[in-house]
């Protein structure tokens, strides 16, 4: 079934031409956008999990016609980084690095993969390009976006040359709140040979907002891509973080933390595609559901038939703080090469009553004890974060949300 | 050791399953699924009207439902043309309910079951035996002591006539309605044969009852229906075995199993499935468990071209328990997509799912499972463990579990591993004198040991023989 | 009598070209106890694995020979003149085992689901069958081809195939376990699964006692044992030699076990070669002074 009927009625080629023109984009980029726009009619919503009688996430009820307001995008954006690396706004990148964009734009996330990627490609008006030259170590690149409009379409490209490294934080929050807002982001990372990328994300949009993001990286030989995926905001988030390990001995880690409360709905995918020899993946997600929130997690470890000597691990743990919340999980293994060591595990439960009793018996009041245990639950995830701002703020936001509860 | 094992040993296992008999049918339906075919089946069985109505309703539902298509990693069913399947063949035997003496059977049918070792097993290890050939049960017998205690073990067609109130209430109503899925609807329209088991309150049937299903004719479909009702405090172990000779065209097996586990009752349902590699094996098996009842599913899937089987337990009563033990082995050209479904709909319910799969020579295994814990099912617990062993790089091993947890006071754990058969382990065994083949066989036997130890010894033997046979091709 | 002879043995890791053995010469006879000592990485464990036929190593030069005398395997098996010497490098690990080579592993594999009883009886029968095949007259070779496999639950093993039946085997196992002061429950446990380090080592010696090898290579059988278990294991090794005339090649780091299992010969391995050989006194000197003096002596005079 096509989702296209929902929005494209009030979207026009002229709007797309205007966005592209304002950014002074070359013809080929405009073409890519127009093709994506045209494809909307044919494309489906991203896949969601279905079990007998249940859809884990329902994207079809989203009213894109009222959510999408392409020509009135407004934001506050910081794009900062050390001198060694180039951290460019999209319009600067278009002027200075057209060849780089030509090579990488749309090469990792197919603009026409589904309805929402095509929508994002046709309409994005802001973005960041991070280019790290050979041998350069760049720390603390930060992109901070504050959304001030009904809809905002964002694009991020990270390219690391051989033996370089970079740590990145990209965060979103809401400035001017509206009743319903839509944030859409596409992130592509091309990690060159023997390079290292840590890309951390902290999504803290308003709880009225809807969010769709795809973050995908391709790791070359000996390259490492580590993702940190923090989700706290929005009423509905559909996000995918994935790595294709296409170079021998490449590695990836996908670390996720989420905390859903009220009626938030998080649909989080973590996926790794082992496509070369001696590759390693480690997927770790920890999350909390409270009130009537629902979390939906899909993890995929896909080992191709040429992926000899693969190691692949996945763990997902969810703590349920309320009886009305729901936690769904589907960790999948797709193994086509027998020279593989792969495992996954998933648990769902409450705070351990024994642990709670132990702490209260030492005189800690039950509320503090619970908060300490929940904060402790996130520690293994927080420890993986290289960028201080991300670690501190994620920890702070989790703490604040906990203390907000009675 | 019991004499049926001697018997098993005497006959070459391969020969026991691969032989085929000349078809000798009394009645044979046309191909495909039309109202005429359904009416003809019902008439030939001399069924009451209500059953014919149920069949026709199911047929309508079948035609209105799409083939399942949006499952990730779904086996390829494109070679299955249901319209080409012959749904009903009644073999030429004198007595319609099946005889209770093997010698009364026509020679070629008796010979079939002799080769499969069924009469021998009956003498030694079983409380009762049913044997189905094509679409009809041809042999049915149970020890007298159980009959005296009110246990019913008869073929399903007979139950429709003799026990209409029980069948009316339980047959494809609350447990597996035809609307459940396309193949359940198909089954509801063309079902034939199968077993009806009724165990009265507080009766423990000490030795298992067994049904054996044999498809002999080319291009046929077998659609037996099994209905088990275990009343409060009762206990029964039902075993089914299946086999068919190999043909060039495809056979279809689409059985339906419904189990009602009463309060404090205990039912074990064991299957050793060895359909030939041209069979599509698409079943719906489901149990409903009342308070403190226990359901155990034990499934060994070695045969078939495609298997899609996810025995389901609905834990309806407080304190009820489910156990799933599943073993799958897929070789060349096979896609064994199997697993478990459990619905925790009441407090203090628990489930344990253990799955072991082996893939080799380009075969594919998939564990597909669903655990649903409903809101209010406090103190429910579930533990799922899936282990897969891969022999070679042509094969595929997938694991696709789904967990839906609506209740917070729960204990949910899922673990899965996939690995290859270990070189160091093989060397260790070789250094003690086992050759390469025997070392691998021993490791596989050990890998599935947690499953075989749950089976009565005779079936553990059978399972091991079958697995060995399946492995022969890839070894050496 | 049997004699294991390593001649100028060179080996490397099969996947790679790292040389590990660079010309090992060594002989072990039935009834003798040899201790092979040396620092980490000197090639001791590799020597053991190459003797047993581990697929991870590739022999690039040299020979591993096993010399047998007539009636090595009892009266029933006639060993012709031309079958007295075997080049082990041509044989599979299980064929080497059938000829009486036993490797006690430093890290025995853990195999779930296979009981000790099933495994050892299968191994014992496989050895007997393989021997028949290896020493069979040319004419009678056709008959024994069909493989019976396991007809019984893997808990118990095949009930009635093989030379040694279940009942007979239970007797043998019980006797050997008593000798080694092993708990009866081991018989029904899965092979090494969940065994402590000491239990695994004890189990290796038990397996040797049951399979009655001509030459046993024991790789660090003494590591990780407490003193009681060290004595049990040592008694087991001495019994192998005294009662079955097994020749022992004992690989060890420590002098300690040599107090209980007194070696006839001690060899020091350095850099993939036997650098020095001597009597028991050599082991004591190593215990006091370490390996550096051997290195000085060897490379000093070279």
Task: Characterise this structure.
The complex is a heterotrimer of chains A (406), B (476) and C (302). Chain A has 406 residues and is α/β, with parallel strands linked by helices. Chain A is built from nine helices and 20 strands. In chain A, the strands form three sheets. Chain A has a nine-stranded mixed beta sheet, covered by helices on one side. In chain A, strand 1 (50-51) and strand 2 form a beta hairpin. With 476 residues, chain B is α/β, with parallel strands linked by helices. Chain B is built from 14 helices and 25 strands. In chain B, a hairpin with a 2-residue loop joins strand 3 (128-133) and strand 4. In chain B, helix 4 (49-64) runs antiparallel to helix 10 (182-190) and helix 11 (423-430) crosses helix 12. The radius of gyration of chain B is 21 Å and the shape is globular. The two termini of chain B are 30 Å apart. Mean pLDDT of chain B is 87; it is low at 1-11. With 302 residues, chain C is α/β, with parallel strands linked by helices. Chain C has one domain (2-299): Rossmann fold (3-Layer(aba) Sandwich), CATH 3.40.50. In chain C, 34% of the residues lie in helices and 23% in strands. In chain C, strands 6-7-8-3-9-10 form a six-stranded mixed beta sheet, sandwiched between helices. Chain C has a four-stranded antiparallel beta sheet with strand order 2-1-4-5. In chain C, strand 7, helix 6 (227-244) and strand 8 form a beta-alpha-beta unit. In chain C, helix 5 (197-211) packs parallel to helix 6 (227-244). Chain A binds chain B through residues 49-52, 54, 305, 318, 320-350, and chain B through 70, 72-73, 370, 372, 375, 388, 390-421. Strand 19 (326-335) of chain A pairs antiparallel with strand 24 (396-405) of chain B. Chain B: It holds the Pfam family SufBD_N.
Task: Sum this structure up briefly.
The complex is a heterotrimer of chains A (406), B (476) and C (302). With 406 residues, chain A is α/β, with parallel strands linked by helices. Chain A has helices spanning 13-22, 27-39, 64-67, 90-96, 98-104, 115-123, 353-361, 366-382, 388-404, and strands spanning 50-51, 54-55, 75-80, 86-89, 126-132, 137-147, 151-160, 165-174, 181-191, 196-204, 209-219, 224-231, 236-245, 251-260, 265-274, 280-289, 294-303, 310-320, 326-335, 340-349.
């Amino acid at each position: 079934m096509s989702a296209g009927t929902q929005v494209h009625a009030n979207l026009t080629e002229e709007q797309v031409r205007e966005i592209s023109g304002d950014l002074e984009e070359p013809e080929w980029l405009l073409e890519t956008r127009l093709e994506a726009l045209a494809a909307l009619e044919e494309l489906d919503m991203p896949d969601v999990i279905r079990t007998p009688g249940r859809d884990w996430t329902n994207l079809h009820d989203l009213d894109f016609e009222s959510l999408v307001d392409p020509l009135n995008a407004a934001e506050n954006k910081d794009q900062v980084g050390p001198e060694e690396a180039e951290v460019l706004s999209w319009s600067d990148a278009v002027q200075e690095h057209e060849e780089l964009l030509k090579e990488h734009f749309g090469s990792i996330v197919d603009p026409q993969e589904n309805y929402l990627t095509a929508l994002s490609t046709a309409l994005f008006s802001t973005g960041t390009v991070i280019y790290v030259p050979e041998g350069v170590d760049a720390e603390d690149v930060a992109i901070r976006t504050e959304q001030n409009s009904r809809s905002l379409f964002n694009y991020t490209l990270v390219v690391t040359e051989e033996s370089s490294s970079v740590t990145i934080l990209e965060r979103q929050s809401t400035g001017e709140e509206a009743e319903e807002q839509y944030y859409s982001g596409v992130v592509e990372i091309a990690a060159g040979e023997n390079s290292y990328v840590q890309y951390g994300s902290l999504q803290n949009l308003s709880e009225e907002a809807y969010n769709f993001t795809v973050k995908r990286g391709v790791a070359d030989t000996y390259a490492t891509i580590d993702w940190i995926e923090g989700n706290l905001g929005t009423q509905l988030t559909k996000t995918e973080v994935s790595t294709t390990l296409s170079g021998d001995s490449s590695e990836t880690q996908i670390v996720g933390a989420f905390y859903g409360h009220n009626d938030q709905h998080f649909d989080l995918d973590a996926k790794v595609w082992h496509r070369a020899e001696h590759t390693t993946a480690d997927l770790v997600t920890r999350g909390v559901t409270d009130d009537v929130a629902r979390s939906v997690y899909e993890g995929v470890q896909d080992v191709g038939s040429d992926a000899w000597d693969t190691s692949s691990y996945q763990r997902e743990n969810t703590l349920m703080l309320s009886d009305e919340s729901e936690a769904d999980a589907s960790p999948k293994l797709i193994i086509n090469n027998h020279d593989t060591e792969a495992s996954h595990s998933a648990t769902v439960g409450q705070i351990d009553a024994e642990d709670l009793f132990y702490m209260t018996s030492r005189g800690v009041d039950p509320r503090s004890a619970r908060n300490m245990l929940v904060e402790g639950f996130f520690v293994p995830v927080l420890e993986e974060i290289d960028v201080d701002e991300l670690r501190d703020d994620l920890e702070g936001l989790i703490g604040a949300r906990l203390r907000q509860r009675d | 050791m019991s004499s049926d094992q001697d018997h098993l040993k005497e006959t070459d296992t391969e020969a026991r399953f691969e032989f085929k008999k000349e078809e000798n049918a009394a009645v044979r339906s046309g191909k495909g699924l039309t109202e005429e075919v359904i009416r003809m089946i019902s008439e030939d069985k001399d069924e009451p009207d209500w059953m014919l109505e149920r069949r026709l309703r199911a047929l309508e539902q079948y035609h209105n439902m799409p083939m399942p298509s949006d499952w990730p990693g779904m086996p390829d069913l494109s070679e299955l043309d249901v319209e080409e399947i012959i749904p009903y063949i009644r073999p030429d035997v004198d007595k319609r309910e099946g005889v209770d003496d093997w010698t009364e059977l026509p020679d070629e049918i008796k010979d079939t079951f002799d080769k499969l070792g069924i009469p021998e097993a009956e003498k030694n290890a079983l409380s009762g035996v049913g044997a189905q050939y094509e679409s009809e049960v041809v042999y049915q017998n149970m020890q007298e002591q159980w009959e005296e205690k009110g246990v019913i073990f008869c073929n399903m067609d007979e139950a429709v006539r003799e026990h209409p109130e029980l069948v009316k209430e339980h047959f494809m109503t609350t447990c597996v309605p035809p609307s459940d899925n396309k193949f359940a609807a198909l089954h509801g329209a063309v079902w034939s044969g199968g077993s009806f088991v009724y165990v009265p309150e507080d009766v423990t049937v000490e030795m298992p009852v067994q049904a054996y299903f044999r498809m002999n004719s080319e291009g046929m479909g077998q659609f037996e229906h099994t209905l088990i009702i275990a009343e409060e405090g009762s206990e029964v172990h039902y075993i089914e075995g299946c086999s068919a000779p190999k043909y060039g065209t495809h056979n279809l097996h689409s059985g339906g199993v419904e189990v009602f586990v009463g309060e404090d009752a205990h039912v074990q349902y064991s299957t050793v499935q060895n359909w030939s590699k041209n069979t599509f094996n698409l079943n719906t098996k489901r149990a409903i468990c009342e308070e403190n009842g226990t359901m155990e599913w034990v499934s060994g899937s070695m045969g078939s071209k495609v298997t899609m089987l996810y025995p389901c337990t609905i834990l309806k009563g407080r304190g009820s328990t489910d156990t799933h033990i599943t073993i799958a082995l897929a070789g060349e050209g096979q896609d064994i997509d199997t697993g478990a479904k459990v619905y925790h709909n009441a407090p203090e319910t628990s489930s344990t799912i253990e799955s072991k799969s082996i893939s080799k020579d380009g075969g594919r295994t998939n564990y597909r499972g669903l655990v649903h814990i409903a809101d209010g099912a406090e103190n429910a617990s579930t533990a799922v463990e899936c282990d897969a062993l891969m022999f070679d790089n042509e094969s595929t091993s997938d694991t696709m579990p789904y967990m839906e947890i609506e209740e917070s006071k729960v204990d949910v754990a899922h673990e899965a591993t996939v690995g290859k058969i270990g070189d160091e382990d093989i060397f260790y065994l070789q250094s003690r004198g086992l050759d390469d083949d025997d070392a691998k066989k021993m490791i596989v036997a050990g890998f599935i040991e947690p499953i075989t130890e749950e089976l009565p010894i005779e079936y553990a033997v059978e399972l091991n023989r079958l697995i060995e046979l399946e492995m022969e091709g890839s070894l050496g | 009598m049997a004699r294991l002879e390593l001649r100028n043995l060179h080996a490397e890791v099969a996947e790679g070209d790292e040389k590990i053995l660079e010309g090992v010469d060594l002989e072990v006879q039935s009834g003798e106890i040899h201790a092979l000592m040396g620092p980490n990485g000197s090639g001791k464990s590799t020597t053991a694995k190459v003797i047993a036929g581990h697929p991870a190593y590739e022999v690039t030069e040299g020979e591993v020979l096993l010399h047998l005398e007539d009636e090595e395997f009892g009266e029933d098996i006639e060993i012709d003149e031309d079958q007295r010497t075997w080049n082990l490098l041509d044989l599979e690990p299980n064929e080497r085992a059938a000829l009486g080579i036993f490797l006690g592993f430093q890290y025995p594999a853990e195999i779930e689901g296979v009981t000790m009883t099933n495994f050892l009886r299968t191994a014992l029968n496989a050895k007997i069958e393989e021997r028949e095949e290896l020493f069979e007259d040319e004419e009678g070779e056709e008959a024994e081809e069909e493989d019976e496999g396991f007809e019984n639950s893997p808990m118990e093993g095949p009930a009635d195939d093989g030379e040694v039946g279940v009942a007979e085997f239970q007797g043998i196992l019980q006797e050997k376990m008593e000798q080694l002061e092993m708990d009866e429950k081991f018989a029904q446990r899965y092979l090494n699964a969940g065994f402590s380090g000491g239990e695994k080592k004890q189990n290796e010696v038990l397996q040797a006692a049951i399979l009655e090898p001509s030459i046993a290579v024991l790789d660090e059988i003494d590591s990780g044992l407490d003193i009681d278990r060290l004595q049990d294991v040592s008694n087991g090794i001495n019994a192998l030699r005294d009662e079955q005339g097994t020749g022992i090649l004992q690989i060890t780091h420590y002098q300690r076990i040599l107090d209980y299992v007194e070696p006839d010969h001690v060899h020091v391995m350095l850099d993939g070669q036997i650098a020095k050989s001597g009597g028991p006194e050599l082991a004591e000197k190593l215990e006091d002074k370490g390996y550096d003096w051997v290195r000085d002596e060897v490379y000093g005079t070279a």
